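Section 5.1 Outputs to date
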Amino acid sequence: MKKLTLIMVILMLVVIAFTSCSQSGGDSKEIVITIPHYKAGENVGAKFFLPQVERFNEKYKGKYKVVIEELVQANYSEKMKLLAQQNKLPPLIEGGDTDWLTSVVIPNELFMDLKPWLDENPEYKERYIPENLEYNTHNGKIVTYPYPVIRPIGLYYNSSMLTPEKPIGEMTWEEFEAFLGEEKIAFMTGENAWTTALFHAALMASEPGGPEYMRSCVLKKERNYNNEYWVNSTAKLQKLLQKYASSNTVGAVYADAANNFMSKGSAVIANGSWMVGDFAPDSSDKWSNGFDGADVRGAVFPGNVALANTYGYGWWIPKNISDKEKEAALAFLEFIMSPEELEAYMLQEGGTAPRLEVSEDFLKERAKNKLLDEYVGAVNSETIIVPTLNDMCPQSIMDNEYGKLLPKLIDGSMTPEEFCAELTKKASETALD
């Protein structure tokens, strides 16, 4: 009898322990979502984004976890298209090919409508830039949640190599060239030719009627480049490339262009405010050949031009993922769009959130970063804001074709007219852009 009682007690303890462990494991099981993204590895966007993901994972430890799968930026949009065809879209996607979104994702409602969630959380909806909210609303449904931050893009120059007599934004392009002297610009032809395309857009904005033309191309992507805006600006770009391109321009990807600038191979680079962090002392491992981040200054382009686009698609959630994945994805969106994270984002990468009331601490912290304050402050009420070529053209053109043709401009084997004609031909050959 005693043995039977002992056996019964042991069995009860085992059952209780097993039940307890099962319940504990069920309650504490994290929802893990994997997000393929280009803001990883050596990509400049990784400097803020990856620590932000870590902050999210720490805050929701045991509940949610985000894992980043590294992708090359130039392959990001094509990868999303492929995953969509396989019905394997990840739980969160940041933007993507605009024409694919408008031609496939939106008409087929592959997205989760964010309107119900935003209606339940009006404080987040109020941070939207009105034009963006309108752009992202289709048949009453909200497709994506872009950052409520705009970041006008200008350029950086090394003051140990160049000393302007007046702000670069007050210069004409002719004065800018004289200012450069024998120094070089960190151009690139690899990937999407980002730093080169920024200069190209700024040159186009200097054409009579250029800003208006450029803005008109955002909603309906330009495919015909046989016009005065493209031909004239391409001719000016060719001149800059032939005279001022850094020695590694042909074939250079972004990392090469950045390294060239941070090793004093060039004195100027066009890029956004997110590059400010590369010039801080804690990034000195990226510097060489006597480069010192303290020497870097920020400015807008000649003619008081800066690049930005208030129309665009941001983060979105696919419609066909599981409820648990949607829960984790929404939690991540809520986290990165919080006032604290938006302020952290602007402190590191610059920009302004027109509909966010920033804290006093934010203003004090930004003032401590002289370069960021200078870069952001270079934009004034008279600055001409125009979109980038990436905003104006089909993404496949900028990602896959534009940079390939630039070496021919540099060596003179292609005229500006031929460049624009070939780019137009490539645009007409794309099936879905």
